[in-house]
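dumping the sequnces here before i forget
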Amino acid sequence: TRTYSISVIPGDGIGKEVMPEGIRVLERAASLYGFAIEQKWQDFACCDYYARHGVMMPEDWKAQIGNPDAIFFGAVGWPDIVPDHVSLWGSLLQFRREYDQYVNLRPVRLMPGVPCPLAGREPGDIDFWVVRENTEGEYSSVGGKMFSGTDREVVIQETVMTRHGTDRVLRYAFELAATRERKHLTSATKSNGIAITMPWWDERVEEMAKNYPTVAHDKYHIDILTAQFVLNPDRFDVVVASNLFGDILSDLGPACTGTIGVAPSGNINPDRTAPSLFEPVHGSAPDIAGRGIANPVGQIWSAAMMLEHLGEVEAAGAIMRAVETVLAEPALRTGDLKGKATTEQCGRAIADAI
Amino acid sequence: TRTYSISVIPGDGIGKEVMPEGIRVLERAASLYGFAIEQKWQDFACCDYYARHGVMMPEDWKAQIGNPDAIFFGAVGWPDIVPDHVSLWGSLLQFRREYDQYVNLRPVRLMPGVPCPLAGREPGDIDFWVVRENTEGEYSSVGGKMFSGTDREVVIQETVMTRHGTDRVLRYAFELAATRERKHLTSATKSNGIAITMPWWDERVEEMAKNYPTVAHDKYHIDILTAQFVLNPDRFDVVVASNLFGDILSDLGPACTGTIGVAPSGNINPDRTAPSLFEPVHGSAPDIAGRGIANPVGQIWSAAMMLEHLGEVEAAGAIMRAVETVLAEPALRTGDLKGKATTEQCGRAIADAI
Ligand SMILES: CC(C)[C@H](C(=O)O)[C@@H](O)C(=O)O
Ligand SMILES: CC(C)[C@H](C(=O)O)[C@@H](O)C(=O)O
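..and the predicted 3d for all of it:
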């Protein structure tokens, strides 16, 4: 049998609650579609590793993780123990950079059974991808402070964009658009205000577009683009964005389709020089953790994205059909979707529906 | 009679079409409320001044503008003639900095007659302010390019935040919150990802909060905050944000309440060391310019904000009541709000309704 080695990092809070459901569904899909999942669990999280060692991961974390076919990630963060920027830069953001997962891929899709906050929208109306640059840009660690603690205090942080880093994510986005029916790409910019990096981003988009004559493209400034997500979400097909803008759009998009609780994300190294990482869009949610009520769909949908990445396209499709079946059934949904199911009940229902 | 000197800069595209309606309403309010408006018009725009001189404004623009009580601004930008970052940095963004208009104040309010894209929301449900830092932050002009034109190309732009610049806008926002019924302030951050400037921003918020014990405050990361604007817009009272985040939120907010076509904005120098500037949130809209169909409400609402700033509070209130009356009347609305009125018809209706 085909065997995939998966590094499993549940993390903190509801990450620990939704992960078992993701695994349940993965194992069920594996047994039905004739492949095996080999799991190696890691406790790299605030409440586990950090609480004991004062760092998010051991120095030899790469060796400990080994060379898995993919990483299945829950959610990290527990501000009572460690500030978010320390925990995230010590784990998730580090993986993205160190494993060169330069594409963050997130679907925005209106699913049956998920109440849409936008008036008059039906499943099928909204269906697009956000392709986010995932290793550089506004998420830099370069900068610092001067005149600290005085009235003259100045804090500087640099946005760093490279042609290497920008072109490769643009290429991925154009390639993706070329495979789609509508073949349309929208670039998120802010070249009227952020007047050094963003006009240059626009130029790189125009350059790259020349290689894809079948793909139509346009651009919106990020301010009006967020407005368009609300007003005309059916307009979009593939949206490509810098690290920060992609972060914003890939939370806003799922909110426009009802909830970030069901949204998945792939942190992808398209060159496969290192493992890719799959995680729900939601965080560790300390406010609802420990009650068994978190929605496991984001984690499960991430499992489907992971299987697709591994080439198990049929199994991935089967999981997504099961998700749609269960979401359409009020009794099987979790409380955030006005259902009564626990995390586990919802997860079991999806596993059973495959 | 009380007389106010106003610098009038209609700008480009629909800026030129909505400005006469703003002026019409101002003059009507003046005659009814016993004050006078002294206008000085300037053609600082792409299609006028730039087309003739190759720059957006003359070197002595400050002298030409003089020392008005306020600036009434339409919209600038005409990308066929000059790239947006050149035109905006040469006019609007320059005013904001040179006149130290460090607060950009924008209401988010669901108005009668404006169809709301969010399901089940009524006028009254959504009513808050976005307070945006307006002179520094992500809109810096510091940075540059290396290895230009090669595969090693690197582009850097610095976000610059100062204690001086941050504290004063936070103070303004807390003061505003303290005057409101709900006394609630939300700070937009991204301290989990933008790990140098934003954790510091959070610290400044906490420091400032100590001076306002009656104001409750919380913070959201910008990604989830945009999601909350869509999912729970009734949660907000005063939202304070950096330059870029405020830019995004003050387009998204008006979109969540129907359209950016009616939204106004004040670029305010609270210390009154230089004139403040009032403008609609929308841009010059080359796509619909010249057809007389643009919605003049953003410009007119800006006139009301300007009068309030000048101390003509009653006249400002009267204009807002007239705006609400006219918006509630389908026949008097412009096409973007499914009406049939022209820009001028809508403007006249509002002037008559005062
Ligand atoms: C035109 C542009 C530079 C401007 C900005 O980003 O500040 C506009 O979007 C605004 O919000 O006033
Ligand atoms: C937790 C945070 C650092 C992270 C990000 O901003 O990238 C998250 O919001 C995401 O989108 O994966």
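The mean pLDDT of chain A is 96.
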